[in-house]
Structures are given as structure tokens and as C-alpha cells.
Amino acid sequence: MGNLIYFLCIFVLASLKGVLGFEGSNVATTDLYYNGEKYGGYSSSSNSKPLMVEITFIPWAASRGAVCLDGSWPAYHIDRGYGSGANSWVIQLEGGAWCDTVRGCAYRKNTRHGSSKYMEKFIPFTGILSNKHFENPDFHNWNRVKIRYCDGGSFSGDSQHEEAGLYFRGQRIFSTAMEELKSKGMKNANQALLSGSSAGGMASILHCDQFRSLFPMNTRVKCLSDAGLFLDAVDVAGHRTMRKLFADVVNLQRVRSNIPQSCSRRLNPAMCFFPQRVISSVRTPLFLVNAAYDSWQIQISLASPSADPHGNWYGCKLNNEHCSVPQIQFLQGYCGISGALVFRSSRDQDD
Question: Cα–Cα distances in Å, from 31 out to 133, 136, 138, 175, 218?
């Protein structure tokens, strides 16, 4: 039987662990809002204030060439597990789009998504990283880790641009971070979940089997991608914005060598940066969560300013109540296309 792929086209994820099949699941638990990238949005009551977790740098990574765009050390945040979760780990790969040009990456290296020098020293652990049982009943006492994103290539590039002083070392950052966490006890995990949101969600798919290979076969390992399914869709002007973006990222950052060969042997490597081209070859159980109407994809992929120079989609992008009937019909195909692509990939592997 082929790999196990789950797909939900929704906004709220309920009882993750029960669905994923980890030990000690609580199927009747309260909803878990998987909110990987929004720092904030909590009430002022002391009971709701999130745990603030300090940053940890990996200085020795520099000797491996595993550095951010500007050459600074990679970093992560960790809160230790306890009790029944002492030997369970959830790793979240931070998201934050991509940089596909030298100019864009040169700008990015002066931000927290390109340099650990600009990263927050403390970040709140919310959603799947929360330490509060009522917010995160299934994972609150696991070892919870957030790996910061500073390469601009979904943790997959391996190149550099000497003239611009840019280091595209996402693959090395991922491998080095995993080695670091194994030294912190992850090598003894009895169950582990690799998760990510947006560009980090894409990375959780691309690195899912590599993550599985870090553990003995008796360790229960699964992967979760939240909002990481980016479609090779035609935009409102009839162009394929995401295809060009991904082609530029793959070429600039030399991602090809880190894309599953089962795909790159058949297709242009840029096409293999689209998760739907890769998931059929992922052997590790994989869980996909995508919003029915992903605001980022609508604004950047489907109706970007360049595709909509006259602003006909401006109001619709901000509020769907301002969408015309044709615009609503155009958007309604999104969830169906996403689900069809995932299930077709799963079926193709089973066949």
C-alpha cells in the first residue's frame, strides 16, 4: 500500500493527534488552532498569555556552511517536554515566502527572514507549540521546537552568490538543525512530528522522508504541512505567476539537488517545487491542511498587482463580500483543485 496522505481544505484543525495517530490521542478534545506564524492575537489575561521562548543559536553550523543569507548563524527556539511527552517531539519549520532574485535576497538578508541578527530574541509559542493544555491538549507537554527561516528557499537551497554576499544554504541549515536537536535528545524520541506553515509547510513535505530517516523504524514519525500546498494555477491575466517564481528560486538557489529524484528525473526541477508533484513519492505518513481560500495565494498568485493592473480584483481580495459572481466562481475552484491534485497523487502511487 502507498503512502498515507490526509487532506483537509479548512480553516480550523481539530484534534490533530487523534487524526495523525500518535499515542495518547484525545479525539473529543477542544479544537486546536494551528497558527504557526501569527505572533499575538491572545487576550491579556494571565492564563492566556503565551509562553515566551528564548532563541538558541547554532554557532558550530558555520563550520558546515549552514548559515543564513547574510552568513549569520541559524537559530531555533525550544521548550522541553515532560511527563508522557518527554520523549515526543514536534518540530515546526517557520514560513515566510521566498526570494527569487539577487536584489530581493539582498534586501531580505537585512530582515529576520534572512539574518539571525534581526530575529526576535523571544517569541510566543502558540497553536501547536503552546504549552497550555486547554489550547494544545495533544502536544502541550511534548518537546516543541521552532526552527527559524532565514534562507529564502524553503530550507532547500545549496549555493551562494559571492559578489552579493549571499548564502543560499537552506538544506544545510535543515540538516544541521536536525543534528543539533538529536544531540539535545531527539535521537531518543518514540514519536516525532515535522510540521511547518506556508514556505515552512512546503519544506515539511520536501524534507518529510529525510526526517523519517533520522529515527529507528520503531519511532512513530509523521509530517504535517499547513498552507504549504501552492498551486501551479493560471492567474486572472492568464499567466502562471507561481511557476515563474519557483523556477527563479530553484535556479538561483540551486535547489535541484535537494528535490526528490523521483520527480526531478521526470520533470523540470522547477515543477518539482510544487508539492503536488512530490507528495506521491513521500513514503512517510503526511497530513496536509490548506485553507479553502488562501489569502496569500489569492493576492500574490491569482490576482497579483501585475496580473490585475487596473485593480478589478482589489476589493474582492480584501473582502469576499465585494467579489462579483464571476470572481466567486473563479475562486471556488481552488479547494476542489487542491483536493483533486492530492488525491490523484495518492492514487497514482497506490496504482
Answer: 11, 8, 10, 33, 29
Is the pLDDT at 302 greater than 90? The verdict is no
Residue 219 has pLDDT above 90, yes or no: yes
111 band by pLDDT with thresholds 50, 70 and 90:
very high
Is residue 159 packed enough to be buried (19+ CB in 10 Å), middle (13-18) or exposed (0-12)?
middle
182: left (phi over 0), alpha (psi -120 to 50) or beta: alpha
Phi, then psi, of 123 in degrees rounded to 5: -130, 150
CB proximity list for 256: less than 8 A, separation 6 or greater: 250, 264, 269
The Cα–Cα gap between 334 and 314 comes to 18
Q: Where are the alpha helices (DSSP H) in 61-114?
A: 102-108
Model-wide pTM > 0.90:
no
In tens, the pLDDT along 244-299 reads 999 999 999 999 989 888 888 899 999 999 988 898 889 999 998 887 677 777 78
**Beta strand 122-125 pairing with 51-57:** antiparallel
Strands 75-79 and 166-168: unpaired
C-beta separation of 17 from 24 below 8 A: yes
Q: How many Å apart are CA 191 and CA 185, to the nearest integer?
A: 12
Residues 6+ positions from 152 with CB-CB distance below 8 Å: 69, 97, 98, 99, 105, 108, 113, 114, 168, 170, 249, 253
| Cβ count near 283 (within 10 Å) | 13
Question: Which ranges in 96-240 belong to alpha helices (H)?
Answer: 102-108, 170-183, 199-206, 208-212
Strands (E) in 251-316, as ranges, are 286-290
| Chain centroid offset of residue 226 CA | 6
CA dihedral for 234, 240, 245, 251, sign (positive or negative): positive
Question: Rounded CA gap, 18 and 126, in Å?
Answer: 19
Q: Average pLDDT, stretch 141-157?
A: 98
Return the number of other C-beta atoms located less than 10 Å from residue 38's C-beta. 12
**Amino acid identity of 198?**
S
Residue 225 parent element (H or E): strand 220-226
- The three cell numbers of residue 320 are 469576499
Amino acid, res. 142: W
